[in-house]
Amino acid sequence: MNMFIHELKSARKSILIWSLALVGITVLFLSIFPSISRDADEFKRLIEGYPEGVLKAVGLQINTITSFLGFYSYMFLYVMLCGAIQAMNLGAGIVAKETSGKTAEFLLTKPVTRLEILAAKWRAVLVSLVITNIVFVAAASFMANFVAVEGVDVTVFLLISASNFIIQLVFAALGIFLAVVLKRIRSVLTLSLSTIMVFFVLSVFGSIVGEEGIRYVTPFKYFDYAYIAEHSAYEARFLVLGLVLVVMMLSASFWLFSKKDIHSI
Amino acid sequence: MNVIEIKNLTKTYGSSRGIEDVSFSVEEGEIFGFIGPNGAGKSTTLRTMLSIIYPTSGSVTIFGKDSVKDAPEIKKEIGYLPSEVFYYDNMRVKDLLKYSASFYKKDCRKRIAEMAEIMDLDLNKKIDDLSYGNRKKVGIVQGLLHEPKLIILDEPTGGLDPLMQQKFFELLKEENRKGATILFSSHILSEVQKMCDRVAIIKEGRIIAVEKISTLKENNHKKIRIETKIPVDAAIFEFTGVTNVEQDENTISFLYSGDINVIMQKLAGIELANLWVEEPDLEEIFMHYYEKEE
């Protein structure tokens, strides 16, 4: 318990900053929405003039962009991007600070097992992400009340919002896994930014060429917002894929971390 | 009873050398020195004992328990001071020590205050703002606050001024008097000589000797220096028991171990201008050990 509380305390600042970032994105985007929905036809005509590739790349769908949920799922791309960076940074950072030698000897000479150490860290990551998402959903709901003219399907709204958390779990687990596997991490931020850029570019590329297979490769494509809007549910196979990946990466991390030699410096 | 028993411990890192076939044991209540030059394998041995790294082969038993399998149990009674002290940044000394204490089911507040007083450590400072020496003090308090039965120190005195070193050694001796066993690694012989009962000497990953400090010093080694009236060929001292022969014009010095009568007879045949017979300090014996091995 002491390790969990310590980790959560040291994540305090990052939780605050990332929550503010997500709230900022949400407020910024949703405050444009009223003007778009007011002049819906004109806006549609405007973007119809854009090349199709551009529309696909940024995830704009002309039919739905002027409805609240359509707009919300469009801006959600940026929420996911931001959320993924937060999650991977958190996961990689919380483990790398023990394995990159700077502070490793402190915890490793205490009367706790390696498994207990990593479990406490994972719990702290989980709680940090939950807090961030609660703040984000609260802000998004607040803004939705303000700007949505027609009634909003609450289930669909919450399903879209919660998908950020699931994608974050995948990236947090990936961050932990890489921090355990890699011998030394020079900069956690560089690692997570570059990894996430790769997945992001893949998903943009997948959107442009319309390749379905890419959806299995990049978590950014696990959730199809048109599907969610239609069925009020996630696609089971992608949900399961995400959760299986999380369990696998975590199991591997726990196993490797308990066996790993921790070198100084 | 042996608090530490290391048997045929080997640790290899890929191609580079770690330690090979290291064996020694430390008895309860002992202050045991572990000496060798930098890179000889001292830290590797200590870190293996603490399961920070795992042995390639061989075993370490501490308090009669296996150092890998029973690591958490063993560590309840171990205090460790690493050679380089890095702690979580952005924490106050006080908070770090509180965090450290929270791992042991003991109330350590009084002891933290006492030791901070002795070591002259400001508990309210941020660790980031501390000098190297002051960080070392944090390490010392952190390692001793739970009154461990076994204290493991890896090059503990770097960065401490002589006065602090003195206080630190007194603190250690006090712990030892209360029953703590101490394993002390260092490349500085004089501090080992001051503190320890026995030492293990490690070189290039292998233990080359385990000796009592008193034996090391006795060992019948004499440091003999002569000044002759006429130049003498130093080669006449090339016989069993003589090592480290050095000649500087009419002065010849060497270490001698063996029957004192033999060397006296030899010297009697030379026209001497002056003669010194001294106890060598540990440093010289230590060098002698190293050279013997080569």
UniProtKB/TrEMBL annotation, chain A:
<dbReference type="GO" id="GO:0140359">
    <property type="term" value="F:ABC-type transporter activity"/>
</dbReference>
<feature type="transmembrane region" description="Helical">
    <location>
        <begin position="15"/>
        <end position="36"/>
    </location>
</feature>
<feature type="transmembrane region" description="Helical">
    <location>
        <begin position="75"/>
        <end position="96"/>
    </location>
</feature>
<keyword id="KW-0472">Membrane</keyword>
<protein>
    <submittedName>
        <fullName>ABC transporter permease</fullName>
    </submittedName>
</protein>
<dbReference type="Pfam" id="PF12679">
    <property type="entry name" value="ABC2_membrane_2"/>
</dbReference>
<keyword id="KW-1133">Transmembrane helix</keyword>
<feature type="transmembrane region" description="Helical">
    <location>
        <begin position="154"/>
        <end position="181"/>
    </location>
</feature>
<feature type="transmembrane region" description="Helical">
    <location>
        <begin position="238"/>
        <end position="257"/>
    </location>
</feature>
<feature type="transmembrane region" description="Helical">
    <location>
        <begin position="188"/>
        <end position="209"/>
    </location>
</feature>
<keyword id="KW-0812">Transmembrane</keyword>
<feature type="transmembrane region" description="Helical">
    <location>
        <begin position="124"/>
        <end position="148"/>
    </location>
</feature>
<dbReference type="GO" id="GO:0005886">
    <property type="term" value="C:plasma membrane"/>
</dbReference>
TrEMBL record, chain B:
<keyword id="KW-0067">ATP-binding</keyword>
<keyword id="KW-0547">Nucleotide-binding</keyword>
<dbReference type="InterPro" id="IPR027417">
    <property type="entry name" value="P-loop_NTPase"/>
</dbReference>
<dbReference type="InterPro" id="IPR050763">
    <property type="entry name" value="ABC_transporter_ATP-binding"/>
</dbReference>
<dbReference type="Pfam" id="PF00005">
    <property type="entry name" value="ABC_tran"/>
</dbReference>
<dbReference type="GO" id="GO:0005524">
    <property type="term" value="F:ATP binding"/>
</dbReference>
<dbReference type="InterPro" id="IPR017871">
    <property type="entry name" value="ABC_transporter-like_CS"/>
</dbReference>
<feature type="domain" description="ABC transporter">
    <location>
        <begin position="4"/>
        <end position="229"/>
    </location>
</feature>
<dbReference type="GO" id="GO:0016887">
    <property type="term" value="F:ATP hydrolysis activity"/>
</dbReference>
<comment type="similarity">
    <text>Belongs to the ABC transporter superfamily.</text>
</comment>
<keyword id="KW-0813">Transport</keyword>
<protein>
    <submittedName>
        <fullName>ABC transporter</fullName>
    </submittedName>
</protein>
<dbReference type="InterPro" id="IPR003593">
    <property type="entry name" value="AAA+_ATPase"/>
</dbReference>
<dbReference type="InterPro" id="IPR003439">
    <property type="entry name" value="ABC_transporter-like_ATP-bd"/>
</dbReference>
